């Protein structure tokens, strides 16, 4: 049976899930070429995984009845899940572990999901293109696998990627025991979740155990919610790898104005004319006259905690902790071009206090 619509239906679930994971990678997107390569490597893993499953399964079928729970357990937890998740993990480790693009923890989830869904896509096509099914049956299979099987592979990959990323972080931090622990979890936990998924279906289909579909559906709801929570937390807490990753934008130091090219931008030119009117957080205009207590005729009064905690601590030390603003020159070497006008306005000693005294109040 050849039907291009079935092939499209088999591919769409993987595309949708990959697009979602790609969207959740907020800080630094992974190269498209690398992701395409991982997808096709994932597609290729179905060959060694399938050969291993077929060879081992043929050996145990002669000794264990296929309708027994023992057969289902061995097939699911000891053959199918280890073969499939092991091949995916091998591709992940060989292709991404030393990649220069692997510089944030969430990258691991992206890599794992793309690799896993490469496998799932080929498997899905093979199922829906089964010549022993009618077209109606094939459409039903495509729908069920789009809702269950393909997301199941993605969920296993999210778990794998989460711990794979932790393992990489531990290695970059010099924590070898933590690295080994998370590498093991990145392989063992997906095998367990994948194995239990298949085990429920095997017991229902081959052993005829009642109630397994109810357990299966409860498990699917739980593991799906768990995966979404894991993705959200991993995306929100995406962390650069020590010594490899860049600095996230929200961790960049805040510079209140353009240190290096003040006069190039018109908004920074009226400092001298209006008494250093600062257009950044922590100041109001007109000669530092803060109604909330920054400048008084007797010096600097007690600031509110917002300014003290957030705006006048590091990294502003080099720019602002200068005793009496002597001759308009900053401690870090950024010379103020309007020192003469500034001195004319703030000549009296009682009106100018150092930021060291200000911070100690």
Number of strands: 0
Number of distinct helices: 12
- What's the number of structural domains? 2
Mean pLDDT across all amino acids: 78
Low-confidence runs = 247-297, 299-361
Distance between the termini: 82 Å
Strand content: under 5%
- The coarse overall form would be globular
Structural notes for this entry:
There is one protein chain. The chain has 361 residues and is mainly α. The chain folds into two domains: 4-246, no CATH class; 262-360, no CATH class. The protein contains twelve helices and no strands. It has helices at residues 4-24, 32-44, 46-61, 69-96, 105-128, 135-172, 176-207, 212-236, 305-310, 317-320, 339-345, 355-360. The radius of gyration is 31 Å and the shape is globular. Mean pLDDT is 78; it is low at 247-297 and 299-361.
Write the layout of secondary structure elements.
Layout: H1 4-24, H2 32-44, H3 46-61, H4 69-96, H5 105-128, H6 135-172, H7 176-207, H8 212-236, H9 305-310, H10 317-320, H11 339-345, H12 355-360
